[in-house]
Structures are given as structure tokens and as C-alpha cells.
Design goal:
The complex is a heterotrimer of chains A (648), B (249) and C (209). By secondary structure, chain B is of the alpha+beta class. Chain B is built from eight helices and seven strands. Chain C folds into two domains: 78 residues; 74 residues. The chains are: A alpha/beta (648), B alpha+beta (249), C mainly alpha (209).
């Protein structure tokens, strides 16, 4: 590329850990080939786990059960509050309890296809295999999944697949699964096998002799910055959706851990793959701090529409039927209101861009239950969706039984993340990345109810044997916090905090975060274009410089200081945003959640370019503001044939 | 809306705290309560003041991080609602709002409105789990769970561990929290082998943490954003009595 | 608290029923009072049963009071820093006045024993003349008033106490049962209170003299 936003292309990247042979036996062979650590020797190994969500919580508990000494961190006040808790819908598993033709193979196939052919076949197949065990494990832990009157587990259909394989616990599946993992972790904390550091945030990764050997972390209560050493480091720090400021992520979710690891040499893959969920409650004003998701299930009975004429600000009840545009039903007669998330989101954006959006700022579309209430009766609608309607009313003050809901798409999940091989190991030996923080299983688009599945598969079943293999295969020299690399990382972290505090400018950290979010949402959100991305990249460079000179962080570093925590995360988000835009700019095709306006079919659908982009883009850091190096991991599809998606 | 906020400010765990008045001029009724505090904090930063510290994370009522006592009501005046889901339309122009942290010896104030709820974690560590080592679980459908039991377990498992029950209780008791977890696990067949040790361990830890005693006032249930029923406390008592009679260490 | 409370509640029901014998006249009432001293005879010596019962009740009261004291201390310790804005109470008046009401009842019990058992505080104070002693009491409006106040405090105490005790003993594990127990508590409190109040009211109204 020959413009200011350059990058260089490095050598291709190969997944050296990937086994070959028949896909059905790859995982069992890899496990058999893995070296083992003698149970008596396990307690001599210290393993750091950062994050306590579904992936981190399950990994910490399992590693501790196996006998490793686990040192675990979360920035929340309790490991139970990680953002996995907010997942609503369910968790997929190829149990085939419905006898409706489901199988490991079908779950594998659906996930590859749903990911728009941008995920690794081997990984996805392993995920589908592990799904079955996850349900067993969680049920044994006492997770109160929905049941039928027979006492057997209930399942429902989800996310546009044709089998009923989603296990759920009302609208709180994430919460219940997380509490299961949290309780397992609590048992290990009590047993003394896990040393838990809550309200402690990772600031940097310590790399010694090319291996991950520790982290630098800040106690958020006292402000003390400490170095923790170990034989391996596991990052389970979630996604980076908050780079957009407004998202369905928790307010404190951040990308700092993965970004700092990236700066220490871990490749970051496919950052432009972000998922936008179509049914969120629209923003109500500039003060908006986050967006709330309304379950996708609402689209089963609600009809989505906008006025036919731009600028029609009449109240929805006086707009006659023939002046309404049920645009999803019109454009996609076969799937109607149930088209996949990316399609529904883009369509909503298009009608709002035409000036036909509703509500404040014209950024919203109606989700109307009028027909459903007439057809089924209000009681029946209440029975099905009562809790969601109540939540909507609490937030908006409007009664959705009388007035149509207003919804708008919002950032929900990020498929990109740190590059990992089949063993979930990053390009830094000894650093493993699990859950949403890695890039491995969802390709360019994640299917509904698959995030929980991946987090738990990684933590309970995939990471532990692979981590053992690493520890058994490598002779690790003893290190402590006085190692020069550890001291350097500690110094850099404290200096950076001091620099934030010293800037004493005239803008709050949040004002930068909001500006960053708007810039990215406008140019690297639901639709991306070459011109828009270039514009964003130009502004991002300025914003980064402006941030360090104009940010104002009150207080000191030696105390609990939420402004400092925020500023520290936002600085990383800005740099992250640059790489995200660059990745989106370089990928001149549309796939899954990444829609490039230049690459669409004549009727406006995403158009993949398999000849040029059937690879995972893994980026190597070379310095802030300096062009990164692109390493391509070519994706082979032997089991599922590449095909264009169509929903019309 | 113009509001006077009377907020508890305390610079650290051992510092002396006090209520401080702030006036906010243009509060929108559409704001959430925490967004209103965000606006205040932005103003404080630009004025060279220290912003108000409070716990919060998901802002959709499920993580349990947020919580403050608003005019004498934990999580504010609206029932079944966490502070993050409370909206300013609940208040009127000219209102004075007193905002205090959870008050409990077992929840020492960390800073301003933020408290340390690690006592809850230690209670769970004392038995609030089913001991099942990863990989050892039987096939999920081998053990049937009657739907009413599953529903009852779920109803109690909804607890978000926010601590509003303790804040609301005139005695500072944490019985509702403990009873929710004991009810969740003890009604399920998976929870049976550790039924007695669980309740005994958790109750002993609860007592050791310095929570008050339950006098069945029901304030906990009324403040609980998830509506954990008071009946769970009776179940906890029953389980505890049963375990005291049969449990051998 | 629950066990001793229920024990005392049982005693109160019997006590109240016995009191109502006053409506059958002096002889009936006095012989009932005498009979109380002969329960268990001839196995037990005269008034032994009464003394056993008094001892049990005294222990119950003591344990009830000590538990209440310990519980209160624990509760006060559990919230060393008070709220600046009073907690908005949502529970009933009965629930919120347990401690205060308990103290009123405790003081009344002491007076009541001095009045009608030890007879030192009774205006009549003749041993064996229970009927006249009672009538003498309630002929004074202030004694009747003190009695009525104490009985209303008792009413509130039972209304919360019974149901709370049931809960503490693990008996109210569902919402439907809660309703049933609350109703029972209300009925019990009302019946006991009305039963006890019938006597002073009857005396003041001249129905018993």
C-alpha cells in the first residue's frame, strides 16, 4: 500500500500446532500427543489467569483442580461480575436431544458457514465436540437450565439455524453459566489453589527470553503497581467492543490487556470483525453511557417498520398501514423479520440514512407488536416477552404494549482478537488467549448462543491440556520480579500512569472516548468505505496526540482513581482503533460483520472475495504510529465448501 | 430538571466521610441515575474537583456491581430495579436526593459510594458450590429435575450479589443472600451430597463476617432488585436446623 | 427467640382462656384459681405444678430477653455507621416495633406479677380472692389503661412474632404458606388480645363486679 496509512506484508503465518488427518479425530490425537505434567509436579507451576468471565473462570477453576497454582485477576470487585453475566439467549450444544438431525458435524458446519468462511475448520470442529461436554459439566454444577415437565432439559431454536440446540436459563443464561464457573472457582480459592486478586487490573505483560513469564498489575484500591511472575500467562480478558464507546458491553470492559500483549509481540488478528446486534434500545441523548440489548427472540413476533416518507414525525399510531414500510419483509420475503443479525442491522441503518428513522435524532426503527397483540392477545404476548417489555419500559418510560418499541443496532461482540494457534497459544510462547479475547472460532460473524459455548469450551476443556503440554515440553528457568525485563515493564507502566496524571489538560477522559466512539461508529461501524476509513485514520492519529496533551485526570495514582483507570484504557482504545480501521481498510471485501460498501452484490448484499481474502489477518506491532506488519494465515476449507450467503 | 444531590464523600476506608451538596441544573428525565452521576463527574473533573467514586459495570441490571442508597432506599425508590436501571423521570424538578453507600460493618466503605463486598465471595467460598471436577460430570439428562424444583432453583439463582438486602435490613443481615444460594443448590438433586456441609459452612462464614441477625422484617425482599422471596430465608433456617441435627464434621 | 416465644404464646392462650372464667362469676373464678394450685395432685404436692410452670416461664422469658439483647447488640454492631437519610421502612408497624413493644411487655409482666401473683401492688391484695383482686384493679381507670396498652403491645408483638418464629423454624417456605401463616398470626393476635381485653372492659362497663 502506498499511502500514509501503510503496512508491510510479512511472511505467511502457519498454525504449527494444527493436527492433520480426518477432522473428527484431530482433537483427540492432539490431546494424546500432548505431553503431560505429573500430578505431583503441577503444584510447582504457577499460572496467571487474567479475567474471570466464562473463559477465565472456567480455566482458573479447572487448572486449580488439576493441581496447578493459579494466580487470578479481575478488575471487578468480585469474579462473579465479569461481563459474561449479561449474556441472555443461550448456549449451543450438539446434544441432539430433539432428534431433529443435529450432530457435532452439523454444529461445525453451521458455525463455519455462519462465520462467513473466515474461521479455521479444525478449531470449529473441536468447539462443536466440546459443546456436548459443556452441558454435562454445567448441569452437574447445578446450573438451573430450563426444563420440561418430564424433568429433562429443554432446548429452543436460535439464531437462524434449523435445529433446536440452544440450552437456556430464561433470559439469563450467561449469568447462570458464569455463576457455575464462579462457584467452581470459589471452591478452589477456598482450597488455597487459586490466589484471587479482585479489583486488580493488568497493565503489561512480562516477556523474558521470548516467553510470557508474568504481568504487571495495578491494585485499583491502593494504586500499588506490582509484578507477578509465573510459568505461563492466560489472557481471558474479553472483547474490545467498547472501543466504540457505546456498545452493549459493560462500562469497564476494555482492550488494554490484549493491546499491551500485542505491543509485547503477540499478533492481533482480524480486529475489523465486529458484530452489530440489530435489536438494542436506541440512545436517548448525548449523556448516553451504554446501550442495552433486547433479546433477538423479539423478532419472532414483532414486525419492523419505518414510515414510507422521510421526515414523517407523526406518532406511529396515526401513520396508516399503507404509509408504513415493513422493509425487512419487503426486501427479504423468505426470511422477513428473521434475517441474520448483520443483514437486519444494515437494513436499519439504510432506512435511517434515508431520513426515515424514528425517535430522537432519527436513529431508530419501530419493532411493532400491534399485530401480535391482536392475533395472540396481550396476555399471551406478556407471557412470552413480559420481562423484556418491562425492561424496555423501565429504560424508555414507554409502554410497548401501546406504543411500538424503538430499536437500533449496536456493537455487541467482537470476533477479532489475539491470534492463537490450535493450542490457543499466542505468538508469544507461554501466553495463551481464551474466550472472546482470541480470534479463533467465529470467523467474520458469530452465531447466536455460540459465545458462551466458546468461552466454556476454551476454559474447561481446551486450554488445560494444551497448557500442560507447554509446561511439560519446555524447561523454564526460574525468574523473579527483579529480572530486568520485569523491572522495565513495571517502570514503563508506572511512567505511563504518571504521564496521564501529569498531562493536566482541558478535556475529560470520557470526552475522548465519546469522540473516538463516534468516529469509529460512523466510519468503521455497520458499513465501511475506503474514503471513510481513511478519514477516520487521519483523525485517529490527531486524536492520539491530542489525548496525551489535553487529557485531564484528577487525583493521584496512589489511590482509587476511576478517572485514571478510564484514561489508561482509552489511550489503548485509540491505538486499537487505528489498527481496527487499518484492518478494515486492507480487507477490501465484505464478509460477515465487516461490510465494505465497495464490495456488494447488485442488490446490496455482502460480497466476499475468496480469491484475495480467504485468510486471517494477523498484525504485528512495530511501534505506535508506525506501519504494522501483516501476516496472513491462509484458511483452507476441506470439509465445507465455500459459498455465498443469500437470504432473499 | 434542577436537582440538589447530597452525596456521601469519603476519600478512603479510614477517612472521615461527610455529605456534600452538589447542584445539577440540566438533568434530563431520560437519563439513568448513573448517567446523571456521570454528568456530575464530568463537571467535577473540569472544575478541578475529584469525581464521585461508585461501582458500576454492566448498566443493565445483571452484574450486581452498582448500588447506592437513594433517599433511604437501596437502589432507589423503584421496586425490582437496580440503580443503573433507575431513571431520572422517577424524580421531580427541585428534588433533593440523598445518596449514601451501603451501610454495613461487613461492607466497609472503600471510597465515596463504593463498598467492599468481598464478604459475599467468602460466604460462597465456604460452601456455595457443587464440587464437580471438570470432566467428571455424568451425561446431563441422566438426572431428572422436576420442573418446579428447577424453577425454584432458578428463581433463587437469579441473585446478583449486589448487597441491597444487607443495606436495606434494619439489622444489616445477609440472610437473603445466603438463603438464595442455599435454596438454589439445596433443592437440586446435584446439590444433595453437600446439602448439610454447604448450609453449615455458609452460615458460619456469614456469622464470622459480622452481618446482623434476621428478625424477618422482609425489608431485604422489598429492596431486592431480583425479588428473591422471603420464603428462601425460611428454607435456609430449615436447612440449617436439619443440618445441625444430622451433620457430622 | 422463636422457641421461647412460642412457649410463651401457648401459655398466653391458656392464660387468656382461664381469665374468661371471670364471666361465670366469683366462685367459678376463684375455684379455678385454686385448682391451678392443685394440678398434678396427688402425684405433685400442692402448687408444685404451678412452680414448675413458673420456673419454665421464667427461663423462657429470661432466654427470650437475653436473645433479644444479644440480637440487638449484634444488629447494632452490624451497622456502626447510621444512614443520614432514615431507611425507608416497607415492613409493617408491628415488625418495626418488636424491640420497643417487647420492653413494654416485659415491664408489664413484672408489674402484673407484683399485682396479681405477689399481690403487693394490688389495691385489694387478698390471697385466694382472685376475683375481687381483679375487680379492684380495673376499678381504677389508670390500671385498666396500663393493662390495655400492654395488651395492644402484645397484640403487635404476636402478630409479627408468631409468623417470624414460624419462619425462623423453617416453616414458611412458599408464598402461599406465608399468606396462611400471616393470617394465622393475625387471628391469634386478635383473639388473644380481645380475650385479655374483655376482662378490664367488662369490669369498667360494670358487667363484672
Amino acid at each position: 500500500m502506498s499511502d500514509t496509512f501503510g503496512y508491510t506484508v510479512g511472511t505467511d503465518l502457519a498454525d504449527k500446532a494444527a493436527p492433520d488427518g480426518p477432522i473428527e479425530t484431530r482433537w483427540s490425537r492432539r490431546k494424546f500427543e500432548a505431553k503431560l505434567v505429573n500430578p505431583a509436579n503441577r503444584r510447582k507451576h504457577r499460572v496467571i489467569v487474567v479475567g474471570t468471565g466464562l473463559a477465565g473462570g472456567s480455566a482458573g477453576a479447572t487448572l486449580a483442580e488439576q493441581g496447578y497454582h493459579v494466580i487470578q485477576f479481575c478488575f471487578q470487585d468480585s469474579p462473579r461480575r465479569a461481563h459474561s453475566i449479561a449474556a441472555q439467549g443461550g448456549i449451543n450444544a450438539a446434544k441432539n436431544y430433539r432428534n431433529d438431525g443435529d450432530s457435532v458435524r452439523r454444529l461445525f458446519y453451521d458455525t463455519i458457514k455462519g462465520g462467513d468462511f473466515r474461521a479455521r475448520e479444525s478449531n470449529v470442529h473441536r468447539l462443536a465436540e466440546a459443546s456436548v461436554q459443556i452441558i454435562d459439566q454445567c448441569v452437574a454444577q447445578g446450573v438451573p437450565f430450563a426444563r420440561e415437565y418430564s424433568g429433562l432439559l429443554d432446548t429452543r431454536s436460535f439464531g437462524g439455524v434449523q435445529v433446536q440446540r440452544t440450552f437456556y436459563a430464561r433470559g439469563q443464561t450467561g449469568q447462570q453459566l458464569l455463576l457455575g464457573a464462579y462457584q467452581a472457582l470459589s471452591r478452589q480459592i477456598d482450597a488455597g489453589n487459586v490466589e484471587m486478586h479482585a479489583r486488580t487490573e493488568m497493565l503489561d505483560l512480562v516477556v523474558i527470553d521470548g516467553r510470557a513469564r508474568g504481568i504487571v498489575a495495578r491494585d485499583l484500591v491502593t494504586g500499588e503497581v506490582s509484578t507477578y511472575m509465573a510459568d505461563a500467562v492466560v489472557l481471558a480478558t474479553g472483547g474490545y467492543g467498547n472501543v466504540f464507546y457505546l456498545s452493549t458491553n459493560a462500562k469497564n470492559s476494555n482492550a488494554s490487556a490484549i493491546w499491551r500483549a500485542h505491543k509485547r509481540g503477540a499478533y492481533l488478528a482480524n480486529p475489523c470483525y465486529t458484530q452489530i446486534h440489530p435489536t438494542c434500545i436506541p440512545r436517548s441523548g448525548d449523556y448516553q453511557s451504554k446501550l442495552t440489548l433486547m433479546s433477538e427472540s423479539l423478532r419472532n413476533d414483532g414486525r419492523i417498520w419505518v414510515p414510507k416518507n422521510p421526515g414523517d414525525t407523526r406518532s406511529p399510531d396515526v401513520i396508516p398501514e399503507d404509509e408504513r414500510d415493513y422493509y425487512l419483509e419487503r426486501i427479504y420475503p423468505a426470511f422477513g423479520n428473521l434475517v441474520p443479525r448483520d443483514i437486519a442491522s444494515r437494513a436499519a441503518k439504510n432506512v435511517c440514512d434515508e431520513g426515515r428513522g424514528v425517535g430522537p435524532g432519527g436513529l431508530g426503527v419501530y419493532l411493532d407488536f400491534g399485530d401480535a397483540i391482536r392475533r395472540l392477545g396481550e396476555a399471551s404476548v406478556r407471557e412470552k416477552y413480559g420481562n423484556l417489555f418491562d425492561m424496555y419500559q423501565r429504560i424508555t418510560g414507554e409502554n410497548p404494549y401501546k406504543v411500538p418499541m424503538r430499536i437500533y443496532p449496536a456493537i455487541h461482540y467482537t470476533m477479532g482478537g489475539l491470534w492463537v494457534d490450535y493450542d490457543l497459544q499466542s505468538t508469544i510462547p507461554g501466553m495463551f488467549v481464551i474466550g472472546e479475547a482470541n480470534f479463533s472460532d467465529h470467523g467474520a460473524n458469530r452465531l447466536g448462543a455460540s459465545a458462551l459455548m466458546q468461552g466454556l469450551a476454551d476454559g474447561y476443556f481446551v486450554l488445560p491440556p494444551m497448557l500442560g503440554n507447554y509446561l511439560a515440553s519446555n524447561k523454564l528457568a526460574p525468574v523473579d520480579a527483579s529480572a530486568p525485563e520485569a523491572v522495565a515493564a513495571h517502570t514503563e507502566s508506572t511512567e505511563r500512569l504518571a504521564k496521564l496524571l501529569a498531562a493536566d489538560g482541558d478535556r475529560t477522559p470520557d470526552s475522548f472516548h465519546k469522540e473516538l466512539g463516534e468516529l469509529l461508529w460512523d466510519n468503521c461501524g455497520m458499513a465501511r468505505s475506503d474514503a471513510g476509513l481513511r478519514k477516520a485514520l487521519g483523525r485517529l492519529t490527531e486524536l492520539r496526540e491530542e489525548f496525551w496533551s489535553r487529557v485531564k485526570v484528577p487525583g493521584t495514582g496512589a489511590e482509587l482513581n476511576q478517572s485514571l483507570e478510564k484514561a489508561n484504557r482509552i489511550a489503548d482504545f485509540i491505538e486499537f482503533g487505528e489498527l481496527m480501521c487499518l484492518d478494515a481498510l486492507h480487507r477490501a471485501e465484505s464478509c460477515g460483520g465487516h461490510f465494505r460498501e465497495e464490495s456488494q452484490t447488485p442488490d446490496g448484499e455482502a460480497l466476499r472475495d475468496d480469491d484475495n481474502f480467504a485468510y486471517a489477518a494477523a498484525w504485528e506491532f512495530t511501534g505506535v504510529g508506525s506501519p504494522p506488519v501483516l501476516h496472513k494465515e491462509n484458511l483452507e476449507f476441506d470439509e465445507v465448501h465455500l459459498a455465498q450467503r443469500s437470504y432473499a | 430538571m434542577k436537582l440538589t444531590l447530597r452525596i456521601w464523600r469519603q476519600s478512603g476506608p479510614n477517612a472521615q466521610g461527610t455529605l456534600v451538596d452538589y447542584v445539577l441544573d440540566d438533568v434530563s428525565p431520560e437519563m439513568s441515575f448513573l448517567e446523571m452521576l456521570d454528568v456530575l463527574n464530568e463537571k467535577l473533573i473540569l472544575d478541578g474537583d475529584i469525581p464521585v467514586t461508585f461501582d458500576h459495570d454492566c448498566r443493565e441490571g445483571i452484574c450486581g456491581a452498582c448500588g447506592m442508597v437513594v433517599n433511604g432506599a437501596p437502589h432507589g425508590p423503584q421496586t425490582l430495579t437496580t440503580t443503573c436501571q433507575l431513571h431520572m423521570r422517577t424524580f421531580s424538578d427541585g428534588d433533593t436526593i440523598v445518596i449514601e453507600p451501603w451501610r454495613s460493618a461487613a461492607f466497609p466503605v472503600v471510597k465515596d459510594l463504593m463498598v467492599d463486598r468481598s464478604a459475599f465471595d467468602r460466604i460462597i467460598q465456604a460452601g456455595g458450590y457443587v464440587s464437580v471436577t471438570t470432566g467428571s460430570a455424568p451425561e446431563a439428562n441422566t438426572q431428572l429435575v422436576p420442573k418446579p424444583d428447577a424453577d425454584l432453583a432458578f428463581e433463587n439463582a437469579e441473585c446478583i450479589g449486589c448487597g441491597a438486602c444487607v443495606a436495606a435490613c434494619p439489622n444489616g443481615s445477609s440472610m437473603l443472600f445466603v438463603s438464595a444460594k442455599v435454596s438454589h443448590l439445596n433443592v437440586l438433586p446435584q446439590g444433595q451430597p453437600e446439602r448439610e456441609s454447604r448450609v453449615v459452612g455458609m452460615v458460619e462464614q456469614m456469622d464470622a463476617e459480622g452481618f446482623g441477625g434476621c428478625t424477618n422484617t422482609g425489608e431485604c425482599t422489598n429492596a431486592c432488585p431480583k425479588g428473591i422471596p422471603q420464603a428462601s430465608i425460611a428454607r435456609l433456617n430449615k436447612e440449617y436446623l436439619r443440618a445441625s441435627l444430622t451433620h457430622r464434621r | 427467640m422463636a422457641v421461647t416465644g412460642i412457649l410463651m404464646l401457648l401459655f398466653l392462650i391458656l392464660h387468656m382462656a382461664g381469665n374468661l372464667k371471670i364471666f361465670f362469676g366469683r366462685d367459678d373464678f376463684d375455684s379455678y384459681a385454686h385448682w391451678l394450685r392443685t394440678i398434678g395432685s396427688p402425684v405433685l404436692h400442692n402448687a408444685w405444678f404451678l412452680w414448675i410452670q413458673r420456673f419454665v416461664l421464667l427461663v423462657a422469658i429470661a432466654l427470650h430477653a437475653v436473645s433479644a439483647y444479644q440480637l440487638s447488640r449484634r444488629d447494632l454492631k452490624a451497622r456502626p455507621e447510621k444512614y443520614a437519610h432514615r431507611l425507608r421502612p416497607t415492613a409493617s408497624y408491628a415488625t418495626n416495633t418488636m424491640r420497643f413493644g417487647g420492653i413494654i411487655i416485659g415491664l408489664f409482666v413484672i408489674y402484673h406479677i407484683l399485682d396479681l401473683t405477689a399481690l403487693v401492688a394490688n389495691p385489694n391484695g387478698v390471697e385466694g380472692a382472685a376475683y375481687d383482686n381483679v375487680v379492684a384493679d380495673f376499678s381504677h381507670w389508670y390500671i385498666a389503661l396500663a393493662y390495655i396498652v400492654a395488651m395492644l403491645a402484645l397484640c403487635l408483638h404476636i402478630a409479627h412474632g408468631f409468623w417470624s418464629a414460624a419462619r425462623t423454624l423453617g416453616a414458611v417456605t412458599s408464598a402461599t404458606r406465608a399468606t396462611a401463616y400471616k393470617a394465622t398470626a393475625g387471628v391469634l393476635a386478635a383473639v388473644i388480645t380481645l380475650g385479655f381485653l374483655a376482662v378490664p372492659i367488662a369490669v369498667m362497663a360494670g358487667l363484672v363486679d
